[in-house]
Give the backbone structure.
Amino acid sequence: MARWQPDARERLQYAALELFAEQGFAATTVPAITARAGLTTRTFFRHFADKREVLFADEAELPAYAEQLVAGAPAGTSPLAIILEGLRAVAEARFEGRKDTIRQWRAIVSADAGLRERELQKRAALAAAMQSGFHARGLDPTRAALLAETSATLMYVSVTAWLETDDDRKLYDIIEAALDTLRATLDT
């Protein structure tokens, strides 16, 4: 076994997703993941704190990215334009081309109460970061909170709708359609 294999993290993630799907999150052990990946337990812990982190580690930098995106948008940019540009960037960078993997991830998370709680914490952290970014732009706390929570909900609802489709629509197209539905709903 080679000592410092460059693709170890990806192999561990792939092995973990396979095992979580086959036998469930709770029944999967770190040694089983490392055996499937052909790596050592020590290598696993160099990349992840625990098996939950295999599912959430790639999301750790997202709140800081979102806050920077909101706060760093050019002066005079409308909040809606900031939200749409941010959601477009995230959709393209993190979702497109990964629909089957994200479906598998969502099924694993949905089947475990602890993982569902972790996902909610992730959503809350993302909304808090966006709120901080809007507040840094000078928006009052209530408006910043409404924009941030609406953005997080719009993304979550859109991803769910995207995962339920079997067509080739892009996630961003579904985000725009969901926003149109929200606008129409608020106007009725």
